[in-house]
Automatic annotation (TrEMBL), chain A:
<dbReference type="InterPro" id="IPR018027">
    <property type="entry name" value="Asn/Gln_amidotransferase"/>
</dbReference>
<dbReference type="InterPro" id="IPR014746">
    <property type="entry name" value="Gln_synth/guanido_kin_cat_dom"/>
</dbReference>
<dbReference type="GO" id="GO:0043436">
    <property type="term" value="P:oxoacid metabolic process"/>
</dbReference>
<comment type="function">
    <text>Allows the formation of correctly charged Gln-tRNA(Gln) through the transamidation of misacylated Glu-tRNA(Gln) in chloroplasts and mitochondria. The reaction takes place in the presence of glutamine and ATP through an activated gamma-phospho-Glu-tRNA(Gln).</text>
</comment>
<comment type="similarity">
    <text>Belongs to the GatB/GatE family. GatB subfamily.</text>
</comment>
<keyword id="KW-0648">Protein biosynthesis</keyword>
<dbReference type="InterPro" id="IPR017958">
    <property type="entry name" value="Gln-tRNA_amidoTrfase_suB_CS"/>
</dbReference>
<keyword id="KW-0547">Nucleotide-binding</keyword>
<dbReference type="InterPro" id="IPR006075">
    <property type="entry name" value="Asn/Gln-tRNA_Trfase_suB/E_cat"/>
</dbReference>
Automatic annotation (TrEMBL), chain B:
<comment type="similarity">
    <text>Belongs to the amidase family. GatA subfamily.</text>
</comment>
<comment type="function">
    <text>Allows the formation of correctly charged Gln-tRNA(Gln) through the transamidation of misacylated Glu-tRNA(Gln) in chloroplasts and mitochondria. The reaction takes place in the presence of glutamine and ATP through an activated gamma-phospho-Glu-tRNA(Gln).</text>
</comment>
<dbReference type="GO" id="GO:0016811">
    <property type="term" value="F:hydrolase activity, acting on carbon-nitrogen (but not peptide) bonds, in linear amides"/>
</dbReference>
<keyword id="KW-0067">ATP-binding</keyword>
<dbReference type="Pfam" id="PF01425">
    <property type="entry name" value="Amidase"/>
</dbReference>
<dbReference type="GO" id="GO:0009570">
    <property type="term" value="C:chloroplast stroma"/>
</dbReference>
<keyword id="KW-0436">Ligase</keyword>
<dbReference type="GO" id="GO:0005739">
    <property type="term" value="C:mitochondrion"/>
</dbReference>
<dbReference type="InterPro" id="IPR004412">
    <property type="entry name" value="GatA"/>
</dbReference>
Length: 547, 542
């Protein structure tokens, strides 16, 4: 479709007069599954509920011990394809409203969807990465509901035959949260399209529709109800983020809404087989929020149980209110919504050949779990492992450094301490730094073979990070080679001793602490280049020597 | 795709001027004898392709595209008040014709449809020209793009004359369900032209345009072709891109062609056929050069269809079919036999199941396809102070009764708890029907049946009896469910109106074998005694 053609069409402003309907709802616009019928009854504040914090923590812990939470997560991942799923509009974030639209994603009469093969590609990649079985023959269905951000009145999705199903994901719980390894089941992965966005006027008088996001491809990942705590759920979520980033199928950015998690949670007394009433939590913009929201919800529900008010736990959708640090009712469900799914007649079935699947499997990168196990096998502690494997670009950098023969532990230490601190201060990512993996390996080697001292190493590190260059070049240019010649060191020691007769006298009369003073003076004289071990050894000899 | 203007290879053509000379077509029609059932008495020349005649006369300099355009425009001006075939007549017809003339005079190439006057059903998008599907909800809507079929026509030099009337969104069999006007049947102004492509069929019958595009979901090209005495061609599902066709029932919809001859319908089909990357249900099957099928009568052998196996569908001649239609169909079968065909009766056991299955599937898909008409982005929006009210009022006031009924039926059929009993079951029936057709077509080259159980009926006659109207689709819906190509061409007249009413014969072929249908259809048409189905002159049109 020619875009010039399209500038001539001006979508109507979707205008609603004299209503606060959308204004009240403004905080929820980032989550698009808000159903139309619920908007009217919705309130922004929760009804008064038991405040979990009022209870003494000991008593609360006691209550919580009797219950088990059952948590499942639906994750929507916006794919980083260059075009939308069913048309050739560019898939960009943050463009001016309605500048990335065409007859297809506007749902104009007569327009038809044509599936981008990249979406299938990404679906297969993620399916394989999540250890799922793939449907060699899947299809698209229409999920039907009315909402102004849904141009066709239906969402193209997959209903009964998703592209991938029956997988699992492995997660390491960080030590500070008790540590351990968990495996969570993946029910299914399916392809679908995103909806547009509503922009609400400040006065609440009208709303406008931005269709830039309409038709952007999504993969929805549904987990088994295998999580039991906020931490487990958050770790599941961040593993999803890591996996999509490792695979390059999405930027996984939660703030932009590229990765959205909806949590389903119920609790039950320990030992009870039957599930409790399920509550859905939305508006989770960070994994930490997810963890806190779940823990809040568990406490809320446990207290209601404990107080004999379990009947107040109802099937509903709740929002996480970051400001108040609690979940609040968004809408209560009146039974199951009927989306009247039926097979999408405009799209042929999605047929995958085994060769195609095999070729994608062969092209998969090393995934976070494999990376973690490999790092562990290399002798790194779990904290190092989790840190390094967390960010795909850090992991790749680390792999390149050790690929150059650098000592594994040293490489990990440099990355986790000084480099990490530098990145944090400068608000940079590893891909922004000028220090190449090759030079970090050189640096580590130079310290190890005592060409330079660790202290010098640290000094030039920051220069290399900011300006680049080579370790060898910098050593030469700044004359940084460590002094390891005992004769030279001895000369400096003798000079210092001869210039400090008072301190020497004090030392020899018992104030041995003054050794530090002498060492410092010698180091200063050597401009920090003297080998510290050698320096101390010779210094001691000289200080303790008989006159 | 674009071929240059060249003289027709195989047809001996009557001069174009015979139709478009100083006399109008209406007067010509009244002068010529109408075909009758005892056709032996009258001998009129076989109908000639208007597309080929146009090509020839433009090439020879005998006439100009501007003259052709003017004559059609003036004919439209004269006849429209009686017929109401068009919802919109293009303002650029003459300009486009002049451009063709300019190119011809400069010796530049023009496309194979240069100067051909084409009507386009109003549910097929035309850039910048109103395209409303005859619905209030799209009143004044002008699409920003051409449907692929329209784009191809334009690329080949065809001139879109205007947008033809129809039943709203293709839902109806009479064109009475248009939100804007009722089209009259040129054979009898008190009768319906059929539907839903009634405007396209009537416009060709009345020679307001040479050929036209329609759409056929359950018979919407074939039944009006039968009622108006023109040729209606429904191609195989996927043969023509649906991009730009406002969807009624996506798995059944096809764009079809009308012409006053088989050759014209076939050549128009050729122009619009073929794979389109904007429609993933369009087929990559090769489109053969149909034109070589349209031999002139002189080259016919004595038994030009020798050995062609024709199956007469037994179930289509049973009760509920008018006796006149039945005998016309049997006469047509005899005529095919005379041409050398071997005609036998075949049975399609699932035949009677098709109608209910069709209405379930078509309504279900339409309930979904019409969801986009919500008043939010385009079309008529009714202001409301609440979202559901906005939908309710925009759709309530925008859609007509028939459309609402089908949306309700379809929504019901797809609802949780009913899906299996209706939609799923209808799909099972569809599979059965496909199998039965396949078996019958394995035994036969083509299948024949009436196109409709009756000739055109009176305006208003079935308006309040939707079931009676739906029953009229019995001959055609199965073909859509099976996705097969079919052609309807006039085979006789029955009593009614000032000079009889045409009856159409339906020929059904195997998937993507339009070529055979066109060959058999053309020979049938050219050899039918007393052919030349031209409606009587309109009052006050001389």
């Amino acid at each position: 479709m020619s875009t010039t053609l399209l500038r001539t069409i001006q979508p109507n402003h979707f205008t609603l007069l004299g209503t606060a309907l959308f204004r009240r709802n403004r905080t929820t616009t980032t989550s698009r599954h808000i159903s139309v019928r619920c908007l009217g009854s919705q309130t922004a504040s929760s009804q008064p509920r038991t405040a979990p914090k009022n209870h003494g923590s000991n008593k609360l812990d006691e209550i919580l011990r009797d219950y088990e939470a059952v948590i499942g997560i639906e994750t929507h991942v916006q794919l980083s394809t260059s075009t939308k799923a069913f048309c050739t509009c560019p898939n960009t974030y943050g463009s001016k409203p309605n500048t990335s639209i065409c007859p297809v994603c506007m749902g104009l009469p007569g327009a038809l969807p044509v599936l981008s093969s990249k979406v299938v590609d990404f679906g297969v990649r993620l399916g394989l990465a999540l250890n799922c079985g793939l449907s060699l023959k899947s299809k698209f269905d229409r999920k039907q509901y009315f909402y102004p951000d849904l141009p066709k009145g239906y969402q193209i999705s997959q209903f009964d035959v998703p592209i991938a199903s029956g997988g699992y994901v492995d997660v390491d719980i960080p030590l500070e949260f008790g540590g351990g390894h968990r495996r969570f089941g993946i029910t299914r992965v399916h392809m679908e399209e995103d909806a547009g966005k509503l922009l609400h006027s400040d006065t609440g008088d009208y709303s406008q529709v931005d269709l830039n996001r309409a038709g952007v491809p999504l993969l929805e990942i549904v987990s088994e109800p295998d999580m039991r705590s906020g931490i487990e759920a958050a770790e599941y979520g961040s593993e999803m983020q890591r996996i999509v980033r490792y695979l390059g199928v999405s930027n996984g950015n939660m703030q932009e809404g590229s990765l959205r998690c909806d949590v389903n949670i119920s609790i039950r007394p320990i030992g009870q087989a039957q599930f409790g009433t399920k509550v859905e939590i939305k508006n989770l913009n960070a994994f930490s929020a997810m963890s806190r929201a779940i823990d809040y919800e568990i406490t809320r529900q446990a207290l209601l149980y404990n107080q004999g008010q379990a009947d107040q736990i109802v099937t509903e959708t709740r929002l996480w209110d970051e400001g108040a640090q609690k979940t609040v009712t968004m809408r209560k469900k009146e039974g199951l919504a009927d989306y009247r799914y039926f097979p999408e007649p405009d799209l042929p079935e999605v047929i995958l050949t085994q060769e195609y699947v095999d070729s994608i499997r062969a092209s998969l990168p090393e995934l976070p779990e494999a990376k973690r196990r490999r790092y562990e096998a290399m002798g790194l502690g779990i904290q190092d492992v989790l840190f390094l494997a967390n960010d795909v670009s850090v992991a790749e950098y680390f792999d390149q450094v050790i690929g150059k023969g650098a000592d594994v532990k040293s490489a990990a230490n440099w990355l986790m301490s000084d480099i990490a601190a530098y990145l944090k201060n400068e608000e940079l990512s590893i891909s922004d730094v000028k220090l190449t993996p090759q030079e970090l390996a050189e640096l580590i080697a130079a310290i190890k073979d005592e060409t330079i001292s660790g202290k010098i190493g640290k000094q030039i590190l920051f220069e290399l990070l900011a300006k680049g260059g080579t370790v060898q070049g910098m050593i030469k240019e700044k004359d940084l080679v460590q002094i390891t010649d005992p004769v030279e060191i001895e000369k400096m020691i003798m000079k210092v001793i001869s210039e400090s007769p008072k301190q020497l006298e004090q030392y020899r009369s018992g104030r041995t602490k003054l050794q530090g003073f002498f060492a410092g003076q010698v180091m200063k004289m050597s401009k920090g280049k003297a080998n510290p071990a050698l320096l101390n050894k010779i210094l001691l000899e000289k200080l303790d020597a008989k006159e | 795709m674009l071929s240059t203007l060249q003289p027709p290879r195989s047809l001996t053509l009557l001069p174009f001027r015979r139709l478009h000379g100083s006399k109008t077509i209406a007067s010509l029609a009244s002068a010529s004898s109408s075909p009758t059932l005892d056709a032996a008495a009258s001998v009129s020349p076989p109908p000639q392709s208007q597309i080929l005649a146009t090509r020839r006369s433009l090439l020879s300099g005998e006439t100009t595209a501007s003259e052709i355009a003017k004559s059609h425009l003036s004919r439209i001006r004269l006849t429209e008040p009686h017929l109401k075939c068009f919802l919109h007549v293009s303002e650029t017809v003459l300009k486009e014709a002049q451009e063709i003339d300019r190119r011809i005079s400069k010796g530049e190439e023009v496309g194979p449809l240069a100067g051909v006057m084409i009507g386009v059903k109003d549910n097929i998008c035309t850039e910048g020209m109103p395209s409303t599907a005859a619905s209030r909800i799209l009143e004044h809507y002008r699409p920003p793009f051409d449907a692929t079929a329209v784009k191809r026509i334009k690329e080949m030099g065809g001139i879109v004359v205007g947008k033809t009337n129809m039943d709203e969104f293709g839902m109806g069999s009479t064109t009475e369900a248009s939100a804007f006007q009722v089209t009259a049947n040129p054979w009898d102004l008190t009768r319906v032209p059929g539907g839903s492509s009634g405007g396209s069929a009537a416009a060709v019958a009345a020679r307001q345009c040479m050929v036209s595009l329609g759409s056929d979901t359950g018979g919407s090209v074939r039944q009006p072709a039968s009622f108006c005495g023109v040729v209606g061609l429904k191609p195989t599902y996927g043969r023509v891109s649906r991009f730009g066709l406002m969807a009624y029932a996506s798995s059944l919809d096809v764009i079809g062609c009308f012409g006053s001859t088989v050759a014209d319908a076939g050549m128009l089909l050729h122009a619009v056929s073929g794979y389109d990357r904007f429609d993933s249900t369009s087929s990559k099957q090769d489109v053969p050069e149909f034109e070589s099928q349209f031999l002139s009568m002189d080259s016919f052998e004595s038994k030009p269809l020798k050995g062609v196996k024709v199956g007469l569908i037994r179930e289509t001649l049973e009760e509920g079919v008018d006796s006149g239609v039945r005998s016309a169909t049997q006469e047509a079968a005899s005529h095919l036999e005379a041409l050398g065909c071997v005609v036998t009766e075949v049975s399609l056991p699932s035949f009677s199941l098709g109608l209910p299955a069709y209405y379930v599937i078509a309504s279900s898909e339409s309930s979904s396809n019409l969801s986009r008409y919500d008043g939010v982005r385009y079309g008529n929006q009714v202001m409301a102070d609440e979202l559901n009210k906005l939908y309710e009022c925009s759709r309530g006031q925008g859609f007509g009764g028939e459309v609402k009924m089908r949306i309700l039926m379809g929504t019901y059929a797809l609802s949780a708890g009913y899906y299996d009993a209706y939609y799923k079951r209808a799909q099972q029936v569809r599979t059965l029907i496909r199998k039965d057709f396949k078996a019958a077509l394995d035994q036969n080259d083509i299948l024949i049946s009436p196109a409709a159980p009756s000739a055109a009926y009176k305006i208003g006659e079935k308006k309040d009896d939707p079931l009676a109207m739906y029953a009229g689709d019995i001959m055609t819906v199965n073909v859509n469910l099976a996705g097969l190509p079919a052609i309807v061409l006039p085979c006789g007249l029955v009593e009614g109106g000032p000079s009889g009413l045409p009856v159409g014969l339906q020929m059904v072929g195997a998937a993507f074998d339009e070529e055979k249908l066109l060959k058999v259809g053309h020979i049938f048409e050219q050899t039918l005694k007393g052919s030349g189905f031209v409606p009587p002159a309109l009052p006050n049109v001389a």
